[in-house]
Design brief:
The protein is an alpha/beta fold. It has 10 helices and 8 strands. The strands form 2 sheets. The protein has a 5-stranded mixed β-sheet with strand order 6-5-4-8-7. The longest helix is centred in the C-terminal third of the chain and has 13 residues.
Length: about 200
């Protein structure tokens, strides 16, 4: 099939999508061998000419396998420039009970409560037309306090300090924290110390 069938495919596409669009096996592998498309994982391809955000290729496969995956914790803090830490894996959350897909990318999957999964969730547009879910800065700070035993309290405190320096509003943070009662006392205490 011609290039028009290939052009009709999304930027990142599966083998099944290509076959359904009428692209033959031979054409898929010819495009891969010529460097026009790149194989990201088993049965997953991406057009090389399309631009993705800085770490886009790391997220292309997980987001194709789990479109509602949401950037969280250290990766989200890094996205919001609220940490100097460089994530050693991509932190992505799915609602509790959802299977974490096997991917070739280095991903640290997290399971968040279904009732609060959407709290503070935003869409970040990246690479032109590509988008992904990310927890907003307020939700990410609350999660850092909520999971400070795992992340370390210094990560949460530093993120909060940076956020407040950028004129973040404590009322906004506390509104998000009300959905996570376990995080509220330590967050209130940290705000009192930093704002006194």
């Amino acid at each position: 099939m011609g290039s028009e069938a290939v052009e009709s495919l999304p930027d990142t596409f599966t083998y099944s999508q290509a076959r359904a669009a009428g692209v033959s096996n031979r054409r898929i592998y010819s495009l891969r061998d010529s460097g026009e498309i790149e194989q990201l994982g088993r049965g997953l391809f991406h057009r090389v000419s399309d631009t993705l955000f800085d770490f886009g290729l790391d997220y292309a496969e997980p987001l194709t396998r789990a479109p509602d995956a949401t950037l969280c914790l250290i990766s989200a803090l890094s996205h919001h420039d609220l940490t100097d830490a460089i994530p050693d894996a991509s932190d992505l959350a799915l609602p509790r009970g959802r299977r974490h897909p096997a991917v070739a990318s280095i991903v640290r999957w997290h399971s968040f409560d279904r009732d609060t999964f959407a709290v503070g969730r935003e869409i970040a547009v990246v690479g032109g037309a590509t988008s992904m879910y990310v927890y907003g800065s307020s939700r990410t700070i609350v999660d850092a306090y909520r999971m400070r035993a795992t992340l370390g309290p210094e990560v949460a405190h530093e993120a909060l300090r940076l956020w407040l320096r950028r004129r973040g509003q404590p009322s906004e943070l506390l509104a998000v924290a009300r959905h996570f009662p376990a995080a509220l006392p330590s967050l209130r205490h940290a705000l009192e110390v930093l704002l006194s």
